[in-house]
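Please produce the structure of this protein holding magnesium ion.
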Amino acid sequence: NVDLLFREMGLTMAPLLARRGIRLLWEASGEKLTADRELVKSLLYNLVDNAAKASKEGEEVLLSCVKGEGTVILSVSDWGIGMDEKTVRRATEAFYMADKSRSRKNGGAGLGLALCARIAEMHGAQLRIKSAPGQGTTVFLAFPETPPAEPEGGEST
Ligand SMILES: Nc1ncnc2c1ncn2[C@@H]1O[C@H](COP(=O)(O)OP(=O)(O)OP(=O)(O)O)[C@@H](O)[C@H]1O
Ligand SMILES: [Mg+2]
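Below is the modeled complex.
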């Protein structure tokens, strides 16, 4: 139940963002998703964290969900600093950060999106980033409506 998932994430994270003057909003969709709930929560947590770090006081971060063709698409949008093409291409690489000083400012390591990409892969989901400098960013996660029988790329332990 995506509405319940967003509500749970929203209620947990909104107070953290509010401390920095950023509003977290989420839209009801009535969609359903078959996925590992805890993994999808850590995925959204990382995307909302990134969106908040890219935003300044008075801006908003939005969680949405729409139905695609055979997919359910979750997205996290911000209207913050955005990324150039090179950053978009490299953002899911482990340890990649466009602004190295950001690690000192925000305590990041450049691992969040690498983790998100791995979680998406395990669910057979596509991760796409739409971004432009100064115009903000939307990260889309297209989950297959019918999930893969076995988590893809999982270790067999
Ligand atoms: N919403 C966004 N807006 C602008 N730049 C972003 C956004 N999300 C990611 N980035 C860029 O992609 C880089 C990699 O993101 P990632 O989440 O992997 O690392 P991080 O947030 O810097 O550190 P960590 O997630 O480990 O705390 C970021 O350092 C930033 O340059
Ligand atoms: Mg991050």
